[in-house]
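Ligand-bound model needed. pyridoxal-5'-phosphate.
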Amino acid sequence: MSQNFDEIIDRSGTNSVKWDAREQLFGSATALPMWVADMDFKNSDQIRKALHELIDDQILGYALPSDSLFESIILWQKERHQMNINKENILFSPGVVGAIAVCVQALTSPHDGVLIHDPVYTPFSSVVQSNNRRIYRTPLIIENGQYKMDYDHIEKSFKEHSIKMFILSNPHNPGGRVWSKEELIQLIDLCIQYEVILISDEIHSDLTYTDSTIYSPISLKEEYKNWVVTLHSASKTFNLAGVKLAFYIVCNDELKGKIETVQHETEQNSISTFGMVATEAAFSKSIEWHKELMEYLEENRNLVIEFFDKELPEVFYMKPESTYLFWFDASSLHIEGDKLTETFIQKGDIALNAGIAYGNSSQQFMRLNFACPRSVLKEGLQRVKKVFDSVKN
Ligand SMILES: Cc1ncc(COP(=O)(O)O)c(C=O)c1O
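Prediction:
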């Protein structure tokens, strides 16, 4: 491996949200941070080099997206996600959540219904609500240890609440589920039947493990391009959340026009030069780094699973098919959902995300981020065990 993912980098005191907001958010400045989806690995040498060159050679004024940036995105999506898109299908945004907000404003009207899963990534609901639309949730069902969609409930919701948009986490955060081709087809066909726009948030899609295959809806059937807006970013996979660049893939001209209108109205059409340079270096030059990252993360995932199987056999968890997030059920602690984070801090000094933030159905779950050096992960797992042991003793 050319990249040393075992290297421990001290991020405290660098204004890292993951490390420096511990005291404020968790009440412990020493807690081991295994929460927000941000990796403790150095960026690829290629990204670092590209950013150095930018600073050395250029003036940092307003910048246009270069043809080579578009090409890097088009090629990446073609090779990784079998997508056939062109430059005209791509729009930029500072972030995926910001892009969801724009889609909500552009493609729905005030008080329209928007459907999301329960549980799912927290900002899906807050963004819809802060834009004055009605949020509805459809429960995910646990079957054979993984989340499955309840299509009857989805159809009932479409009918009863005149839903105009479905926001999908593809793959699923926090459960790590990679939706199969058949599951996606069933969902999109329902969306088309009820004239519902599907927002497919694919920010984690390049973090899929070797035992799963990820599909992007617009690669499945040509007609889906009329109903789906895909959102993507290099930020999770290449650890670039701070440089703020994401993109929409929108093939339907009418939808694209509406999105562009809101982008103009909200002055959201100017983007970060650092984001553009880093994204291009990620997609076009960091292929080997990505391959090595995935090997490392897969070993980390397997280590977490082995640990839970051996040390905490009573704890139910979902094997992540994608993402570096591990979703487990802490109900054997017999603690209220809103007290779980505090308990993990008090008994184990470990900062995790509480399931209650993702939906009512996951009040007893916790989310652990395993994108860290293996020695840190091992320490984190011991701390989790300490929390469960504290209840047994
Ligand atoms: C499903 C999902 N979408 C979006 C984001 C955040 O995207 P951004 O930082 O580009 O707004 C995250 C971050 O963890 C996420 O998990």
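The radius of gyration is 21 Å.
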